[in-house]
Design a protein that fits this description.
The structure holds 2 protein chains of 2 kinds.
Chain A (H helix, E strand, L loop, with lengths): L1 H17 L1 H4 L2 H22 L1 E6 L2 E6 L1 H10 L3 H31 L4 H8 L1 H4 L2 H11 L6 H8 L14 H26 L3 H9 L4 H29 L3 H6 L11 H10 L4 H29 L3
Antiparallel strand pairs in A: 1-2
Chain B lengths: L1 H13 L1 H5 L5 H25 L3 H6 L9 H8 L5 H32 L4 H16 L6 H10 L6 H25 L3 H9 L4 H12 L1 H17 L2 H6 L7 H10 L5 H11 L1 H9 L1 H13 L1
Helix pairs in contact in B: 3-15, 5-15, 6-9, 6-12, 7-9, 9-12, 10-11, 12-17, 14-15
Classes of the chains: A mainly alpha, B mainly alpha.
Chain lengths: 302, 292
């Protein structure tokens, strides 16, 4: 009995070993084919169709023109695209500046390992929890900001409810969430700086500012570019916090592409038009990836 | 990490001037203090709010009488499913993490060790990268339809499968970087000793790549636990996860602010716990992911 299982295990191990080269990649490829490639093809089919649910069953009909007409008639799309670009540009710019400054500052302070642990906490916290946290803090009646303003004898501010301020308030939350990430990447780069070089500059009488401008930042440039590209692309993926904080309101003042996509799919139940929008978003991201690849390889010194 | 810090202190002893050129001035200290306050302040605020009665939150009372009633209501209240939501999240995150480590680890090793034609390896890696960059909401429509057809809408299976998919790119890229650091001589020695390719992977490579597996595993677990848009779209009440439940708290007609605070505090526990236990792995995972 025991020898029988041993033989069987031996046979199994033999098969596993002999064919390892062939099956090792298979699960990942199958999973990716089933859950990304097939859906992508389906997306193309959906984008020229109308999908409706009748008594729980889907009814597909071929209506290519209808989805393009909806695209033209969609007056939320334009503010969503504009807001998304504003959101990405402003938040990433602030995050890069603050993250770099913080990385350089923390590198020169005592207890930096502990500081790093505390400072990167926001990266791992659920974005939804971050949204609900800030929703409470922004609250008009009892949020911390308005309590502070009232205590100072000032008027409370409608952080999330006013059309002029809401997008900025949302950007602040994104900055809070992601400065730690930029900090972490650049801190690792600062720690890897060649100390001898900085020391030589110091000995040669370079001021701190000169060292920073002429040595530190040029040496950090590759890491800065990487952090920037990461943030620029991931900022486009923002959804969770904004869904919690404003859901795109008031009006369309914080409407973003992803929020709009979600609403088209699950609130307006327009699966065909949603698919068309999805394809457009994917195409835009791929184009950005290709351009940024070209740009970084052109920037890289040979 | 320990080695680098000791090398640094050695360097500092040899060249005391060198460190002086990096030392932060007053402005640097002020910046660090402000950043610390800005990062920790919101945590402290929501933490205190979660121990306040709703009335005390509304009145902005401080000091206040702490109460556990919010946590009791959220976890054990008759109108709250939050305990079930936690169980769902733990199941989905746990199972999907184990699966993604197996599938992604194997794929990364396969790409590293075996000679695949360029269109397979570059195609696979490139596609994972593109998929990682694309907002997951773009695929949610087809997923929704496919899982409905399979009868898996509102199931933990659907969440596990999609979470494995979204964490696969990160796992493959991370593990590839870790496998690359394993000296090839070790594999040759295993081969000479009569170890088959799978045995060599299982018995020799995996133990050596354990730090990488832990790093990828912690990140995959946290990202799955945190994941919101998929869980929101592919589950209804029964299989909702923690983030979905928190969003529901926030969107009720009459928002239960105190319970929302308590639920949010609970949802941050895994991340904070792992941050202090597995910090080394998290940092290596996050920075490797960005640099390589």
């Amino acid at each position: 009995m025991a020898s029988e299982t041993a033989v069987r295990r031996g046979a199994l191990a033999g098969v596993l070993n002999r064919t390892f080269r062939h099956w090792s990649l298979l699960p990942a490829v199958l999973l990716f084919a089933a859950l990304t490639l097939y859906p992508l093809l389906n997306l193309v089919r959906m984008s020229v169709s109308t999908v409706e649910f009748a008594q729980g069953a889907e009814v597909w009909s071929f209506t290519p023109k209808r989805n393009f007409d909806m695209l033209r008639a969609d007056d939320v799309l334009r503010p969503a695209v504009v807001n998304t670009f504003v959101f990405v540009a402003v938040s990433v710019a602030i995050e890069m500046v603050l993250g770099l400054a913080l990385a350089i500052a923390v590198a020169g302070v005592r207890g930096k390992r502990w500081l790093r642990t505390l400072l990167i906490l926001p990266i791992l916290v659920p974005p939804v929890a971050i949204g609900s946290m800030w929703k409470l803090m922004y609250n008009y009646d009892f949020g911390i900001f308005n309590q502070a303003l009232v205590a100072l004898g000032l008027q409370p501010v409608n952080w999330l409810g006013s059309t002029s301020l809401a997008l900025l308030s949302v950007i602040v939350v994104d900055v809070w969430h992601w400065v730690p990430f930029v900090f972490l990447i650049l801190f690792a780069a600062v720690e890897a700086l060649p100390i001898d070089l900085l020391e030589a500059a110091h000995v040669d009488g370079a001021s701190r500012r000169q060292t920073l401008r002429l040595i530190t930042i040029p040496l950090l440039l590759p890491a800065i570019v990487v952090a920037f590209l990461f943030r620029a692309i991931l900022a486009f993926k923002v959804f969770d916090e904004v869904y919690l904080l404003t859901s795109g309101g008031p009006g369309t003042s914080t409407e973003l592409v992803n929020l709009h996509l979600y609403k088209v799919f699950f609130e307006q139940n327009q699966l065909g038009y949603g698919a068309l929008l999805s394809l457009a978003v994917i195409a835009a991201i791929v184009a950005f990836l290709l351009v940024s690849r070209k740009a970084t390889s052109a920037l890289r010194p040979r | 990490m320990r080695r680098s810090s000791s090398a640094e202190s050695l360097r500092a002893r040899i060249m005391p001037v060198g460190v002086a050129s990096l030392r932060a001035g007053v402005a640097g200290h002020v910046l660090v203090a402000l950043a610390l306050f800005a990062v920790l302040g919101p945590f402290v605020w929501i933490f205190t709010a979660s121990f306040k009665h709703q009335i005390a939150i509304y009145a902005g009372q401080f000091p206040f009488t702490p109460t556990l009633s919010n946590f009791q209501d959220v976890l054990f209240g008759r109108r709250s499913d939050f305990a079930a939501n936690i169980l769902n999240s733990l199941t989905v995150a746990g199972v999907s993490t184990l699966l993604v480590l197996a599938v992604g680890g194997l794929a990364a090793y396969s790409l590293h060790r075996f000679r695949w034609p360029a269109w397979v390896s570059a195609g696979f890696l490139g596609w994972t990268l593109v998929f990682h960059m694309v907002p997951v909401l773009t695929l949610i429509g087809p997923w929704y339809i496919a899982f409905r057809e399979l009868g898996l809408y509102d199931s933990r299976t659907a969440l596990i499968m999609t979470h494995v998919t979204i964490n696969l790119p990160m796992t493959v890229w991370l593990m590839r970087a870790f496998f690359r650091d394993i000296p090839p001589e070790i594999l040759e020695a295993a081969h000479v000793d009569g170890c088959g390719p799978f045995d060599a992977f299982y018995r020799v490579v995996l133990p050596l790549a354990l730090p990488g597996l832990i790093a990828a595993g912690i990140l995959a677990f946290v990202f799955s636990w945190n994941e919101f848009p998929i869980a929101l779209s592919l589950t209804s009440r029964e299989n909702a996860t923690v983030p979905v439940a928190i969003a529901r708290f926030a969107q009720q007609y009459e928002i239960q602010h105190a319970q929302m605070a308590a639920a949010s505090v609970i949802s941050t526990i895994p991340a904070i716990l792992l941050m202090f236990v597995g910090q080394r792995f998290i940092i290596s995972g996050l920075t490797l992911g960005a640099v390589k």
